[in-house]
């Protein structure tokens, strides 16, 4: 034997080549392992590289009881030798990556069965292999780490594979276990593979063209199914724009899509939110959770024909789920303002007096069960509000000056620039004359509804302002300021907008 080969053998024996491998078994010794019909011979260094394990414990016991002139007994395990080839490569220092879902579960099951901690951890951190709608996906785990998208369906629903690297066979003792139970690759057969592929495309930062509202709802349904809340916020219908007249950014969003964490109050002075009794007027702003980094003035869209406005009294009444959502929004605003309210109701609030006694109703949830409004919410419809009544633009709006015309700060909530229409009533015409533009009023448009309209769809700004009650004490109220309304004056107007099925 050459001097060089003796030196190499000496270095192996002295652990010089394997400084990070513990000496659980003699590194230079070879140990036979029979997997199914194939014999593998692995060095003590290879077995010790991922230990303690089933292999290291078996051969440690043999070496401890080995008598002189006895040979190491072969360890026989009735498992798949093809899968073990990858495990042997891992023990020899090679990086092993699963090829597909079937390969992943076999490697993971055998790594658990053989108690290989490093390989288990490596597979635990590897890509996710899953079948969605009979199509196989290989997903990088980092894709789900963006704000709002974790924890999700994969970290919560597939805990057996992805949540705990320590137990994949809970309740089964490895000692005396001939073989682990059969494991199938993760599968979600009841979801669309095409929709999931589009969600992955979005998560990677690419845009997805929303073809129509039905397509959007498909994406949103699966976002909710997989608990991808951050992605869901990107997909909900919204519009962000810069309002040159108001010098503010605006966000239009549906009432049902508003999240409490995104609601904020911006006083007219531009200061901080007022606490408790230190009250002022301002506008409600909104930022989408997990997505937006700045607040924008909120324009809330309310649809479903569940809004009735009485333009004589300047009040709106809501029914059905819209009434509950408006009440919930008022409750959130009250909490943001730090009003002294109790939380005994899920959607309605009980207003507390100065001595702690209850002064408000504890009945069903409604705007009137918040400290911010009566059951019929106050509204403002100024000349800047576009109204489409019974399918036609409504211009005959002299009646707008009949209520609260003195409340000039409700016109737009910002100081008008020099030389503009500053100081005039918010219900005066656009030319500065005593009324808005006129055209011939359609017969029955006002009279048929008895002064009330049913709003098919409406967009409103949300105003918070101080008010004085009948007892002379100041309080806070929320006012909905009209931006755009599509309304019906009565059954005639509603029927005129009906379409035929064919």
UniProtKB/TrEMBL annotation:
<dbReference type="Pfam" id="PF02214">
    <property type="entry name" value="BTB_2"/>
</dbReference>
<dbReference type="InterPro" id="IPR003131">
    <property type="entry name" value="T1-type_BTB"/>
</dbReference>
<protein>
    <recommendedName>
        <fullName>Potassium channel tetramerisation-type BTB domain-containing protein</fullName>
    </recommendedName>
</protein>
<feature type="domain" description="Potassium channel tetramerisation-type BTB">
    <location>
        <begin position="33"/>
        <end position="121"/>
    </location>
</feature>
<dbReference type="InterPro" id="IPR011333">
    <property type="entry name" value="SKP1/BTB/POZ_sf"/>
</dbReference>
<dbReference type="GO" id="GO:0051260">
    <property type="term" value="P:protein homooligomerization"/>
</dbReference>
<feature type="region of interest" description="Disordered">
    <location>
        <begin position="410"/>
        <end position="452"/>
    </location>
</feature>
């Amino acid at each position: 034997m050459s001097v060089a080969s003796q030196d190499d053998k000496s270095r192996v024996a002295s652990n010089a080549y394997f400084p990070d491998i513990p000496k659980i078994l003699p590194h230079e010794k070879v140990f036979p392992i029979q997997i199914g019909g194939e014999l593998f011979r692995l060095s003590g260094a290879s077995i010790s590289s991922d230990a303690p394990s089933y292999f290291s414990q078996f051969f440690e016991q043999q070496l401890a009881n080995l008598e002189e002139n006895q040979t190491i007994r072969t360890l026989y395990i009735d498992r798949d030798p093809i899968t073990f080839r990858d495990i042997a490569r891992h023990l020899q220092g090679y990086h092993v990556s699963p090829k597909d879902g079937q390969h992943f579960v076999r490697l993971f099951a055998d790594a658990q069965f053989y108690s290989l901690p490093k390989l288990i951890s490596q597979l635990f951190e590897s890509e996710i292999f899953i079948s969605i709608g009979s199509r196989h996906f290989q997903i990088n785990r980092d894709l789900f780490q963006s704000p709002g998208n974790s924890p999700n369906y994969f970290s919560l629903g597939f805990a057996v594979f992805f949540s705990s690297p320590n137990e994949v066979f809970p309740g089964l003792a490895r000692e005396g276990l001939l073989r682990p139970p059969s494991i199938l690759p993760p599968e979600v057969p009841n979801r669309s593979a095409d929709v999931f592929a589009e969600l992955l495309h979005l998560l990677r930062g690419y845009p997805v063209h929303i073809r129509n509202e039905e397509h959007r709802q498909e994406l949103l349904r699966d976002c909710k199914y997989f608990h991808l809340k951050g992605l869901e916020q990107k997909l909900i219908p919204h519009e962000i724009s810069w309002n040159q007249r108001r010098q503010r950014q605006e966000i239009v969003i549906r009432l049902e899509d508003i999240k409490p964490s995104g609601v904020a109050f911006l006083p007219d002075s531009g200061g901080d939110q007022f606490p408790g009794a230190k009250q002022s007027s301002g506008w409600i702003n909104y930022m989408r959770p997990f997505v937006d980094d700045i607040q924008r003035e909120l324009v809330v869209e309310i649809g479903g024909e569940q809004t009735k406005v009485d333009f004589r009294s300047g009040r709106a009444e809501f029914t059905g789920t819209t009434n509950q959502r408006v009440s919930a929004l008022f409750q959130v605003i009250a909490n943001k303002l730090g009003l002294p309210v109790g939380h005994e109701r899920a959607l309605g609030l009980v207003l507390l007096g100065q001595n702690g006694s209850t002064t408000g109703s504890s009945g069903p949830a409604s705007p009137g069960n918040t400290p911010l409004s009566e059951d019929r919410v106050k509204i403002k419809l100024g000349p800047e509000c576009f109204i489409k009544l019974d399918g036609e633009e409504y211009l005959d709006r002299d009646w707008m000056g009949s209520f609260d015309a003195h409340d000039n700060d409700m016109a737009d909530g910002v100081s008008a620039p020099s030389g503009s229409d500053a100081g005039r009533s918010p219900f005066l015409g656009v030319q500065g004359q005593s009324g808005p533009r006129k055209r011939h009023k359609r017969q029955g448009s006002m009279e048929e509804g008895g002064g009330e309209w049913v709003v098919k769809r409406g967009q409103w700004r949300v105003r918070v302002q101080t008010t004085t009650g009948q007892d002379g004490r100041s309080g806070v109220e929320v006012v909905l300021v009209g931006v755009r309304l599509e309304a019906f004056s009565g059954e005639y107007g509603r029927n005129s907008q009906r379409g035929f099925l064919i």
